[in-house]
């Protein structure tokens, strides 16, 4: 019976990249930041709540804002109070990193 023999010299080895050996879960985590910045494509209106919510909630969860929206965590102050370890009077105000998304 004829058998097919593959000559090892004719098959070029594929170069390995860091992502070629990665598990699917790791790839999903690496690609997650790309998915976080898709614009919301629908304007909230009276007749499209379910569709709007399906776009908004994943974004809120991805940015870990649920606790702030639903009252489980108090919102941080918008500005640093200079009397409690903040910048000296006359220095420009700094935005608290908790507000940077």
TrEMBL record:
It comes from the Eukaryota. This is Retrotransposon Copia-like N-terminal domain-containing protein.
